[in-house]
Amino acid sequence: MRKLLCSVALVGLCSAVSCGQPPRSPQPAAPRAPVATAPLARVVVDPLGPRPIPEPPAPFRPPLPQVLVGPAHSTVWLLERHDLPIVAMAVVFPHGSAAEPASQAGLASVTASMLTEGAGDRDALAFSAATSDLGARLAASAELDTTIVTLEVLTRRLDAALGLLADAILRPRFEKKDYDRVRSLWVNALKARAHDPTEVARVATSLALFGGAHPYGHPRDGTLATASNVRLADVTRWHKAVFRPDTATFVVAGDVTKDEILWRISSAFAAWTAPLAPPLPVSAAPFPTRSSPTAVVVDRPDAPQVVISLASAGVAASDPASARLDMLNLALGGSFTSRLNQNLREDHGWSYGVRSRFDSRRGTGMFVVSTAVRADAVTDALRETKKEIGAMANGTLSQEEIPKLRALVHGNALEKYGALRGALGSLAFAASLGLGPDRDARVLDSQLTAQGADLAALASKYLDLYAATVVLVGPKDLAIQAILANGFPPPEQWDPEGRPVQQRHHMTR
Fold first, then answer.
1. Tens digit of pLDDT for each residue in 332-345?
2. Is the same domain home to 364 and 459?
3. Do residues 484 and 344 share a domain?
4. C-alpha to C-alpha distance for 393 and 77, rounded to whole angstroms
5. Residues near 330 by Cβ (< 8 Å), separated by ≥ 6?
6. How far apart are CA 203 and CA 474, in angstroms?
7. Do 263 and 298 reside in the same domain of the chain?
8. In 3D, which of 291, 306, 295 has the Cα closest to residue 491?
9. Residue range 403-431: average pLDDT?
């Protein structure tokens, strides 16, 4: 019975469909309202982990050298460094080009050059070969306030190298044929200097700022006129007056102990005795009195660039302000991110770079800004240079600049003493100017404790644009226009050796 009822139901359903009755259309579902959901935060996971934050650098204090008594009343400064089997040495004498007669400018420099042109039993070629065979570096140079002879060699070859060093200082041959060759090279270098606008600006700036009668006024490499006044006999006399043990300081850094270096120096320099005549005076000439700025142009008619040199009085290296002025200068023009470099190079694209510095000298040195700019931009570049100096003199350093300056001076000290040659050079500089073996430590202490107000006060005192001297080397008309447009007086025109052009023409006639 149940099967029969199911069959009837199925037949009825089939009949309804087959009879043409349309099936019901399904009703569409009502749309669902969207559900608001917060966006999922995207989490970026650095596979290297969180960025490490470096610890502040450990405080650094330059090490003090040992101060010893050397042969014939000389002095020895020793900084032991045993990490490498190398010894570097500088024999420092406290007289340089500032002590030579102005009429014989270049005498100290050419005398230093002659020391390695044959000495003792070796002529020039044999002396050079002996130095090369030892793998040593031996050189001599004269700066404004000092003459320095340097040596660098492996520790195991130090004795032989000290023999060469002693020959160069005590027994230079000074043969005429060697002097004639060295003098010829000197004269050719002076002729080439006239075609280097940066070097021309250097010569003209010192002469314009200090004057020809001041010890710092003439160039340490001399001029063509003064080179003609220097004879071999003058070189011999200068050597006798300057290279004496009672004024010498041996600055030694490297892989050698106190007993070893004293014995070795005493053996090599056993024949060195001080002359009976008193040594040349060690003095610092005062800065010349100036009442108005000076402007100078050296014409280079077709030059695509103009070299700008803007200078004023600085301080002596022994002045307590010297250390902090060097720190201040890092913000103004002594580093790549300095204000001057950012303005002229980065913001305007007028120059490849701008540098400023406070010269460190025994006497009062100079503050100088130097750069080479596009010739068509010289007026604007000189204006912006003055603006940045004036802003530094009249304002204060920002809060962001002070930590940066402290980091820079700390890093510079670390870098200097991280290399043997850097440590030697800094100690030799201190010895040459009589600043004491602790000079670097005192400088760094002064800089790291400087506050913004301290640096601002120094800027106001020493960045004096009114007393500035400007020297431009480039196309004359553009240079004169730039000088006058920036408030300087009408400039004098000089030749590349610092002689007024009118005077040169008069002498020619």
1. 999 999 999 999 99
2. yes
3. yes
4. 39
5. 338, 405, 408, 409
6. 15
7. no
8. 295
9. 95
